[in-house]
Design goal:
This protein is mostly helical. It contains 9 helices and no strands. 63% of the residues lie in helices and 0% in strands. It is globular, with a radius of gyration of 16 Å.
């Protein structure tokens, strides 16, 4: 389900609960819009608090924590036009910081730095790294059709309709999945596949 809908793993919600949602979606009982609304509601109730606590304890993102917490607050207040571009910019920032990058940062740079996640991360981390490259960092040219949740279209001012609850939560979860994967690069990369329906 997550692969089909291009959602990163909402890992704070519990595998059994996610499996139930996946079964309902694959059976045609709920739509992709329903899934997005369910995820949003669950994160509003308790998931964002868990995420905030994890971020506050992570040395990798400590220098940018005030910016990230402002983005979470904007998300909670429904100001998605603020949360989305901030998180997208900080996603690039944590990849560059984790790899101690200096100089120009291009899509080729991003692909290079995410390659270890794409090859050695857990199944969902590999999927997230793939989507970061193919969805968030997809090619975009002014005058062309605006892709959904494209970092370039948003930050270069072409996409003026990106400010939705779904896009904001997806961006936050993309960031968090990459954060977790970057922290795990030196440790155990065992496949944490979970349930095959997700």
């Amino acid at each position: 389900m997550l692969t089909r809908l291009a959602w990163p793993l909402p890992g704070h919600l519990g595998a059994r609960w996610l499996d139930s949602i996946a079964d309902s979606f694959l059976a045609g009982v709920i739509t992709d819009e329903d899934v997005a609304e369910i995820f949003f509601d669950r994160y509003r109730i308790h998931g964002l608090q868990d995420l905030r606590r994890e971020w506050e304890q992570d040395p990798l993102i400590a220098p940018r924590l005030p910016i990230l917490l402002d983005a979470l607050t904007a998300h909670e207040e429904g100001r998605y036009t603020l949360s989305v571009p901030v998180i997208l910019a900080q996603l690039e920032g944590i990849v560059a910081a984790a790899r101690e990058h200096e100089g120009r940062f291009t899509i080729k740079t991003l692909i290079k730095y995410l390659e270890l996640i794409r090859t050695q991360g857990s199944r969902f981390q590999r999927i997230t790294a793939k989507y970061v490259v193919e969805i968030l960092w997809c090619d975009f040219y002014h005058g062309a059709e605006v892709p959904e949740l494209s970092r370039h279209a948003i930050l270069h001012g072409a996409d003026v309709e990106y400010g939705t609850a779904s896009n904001s939560l997806r961006t936050i979860l993309y960031f968090d999945n990459i954060r977790v994967a970057l922290n795990a690069l030196g440790g155990d990369h065992g496949d944490e596949e979970g349930n095959s329906h997700l």
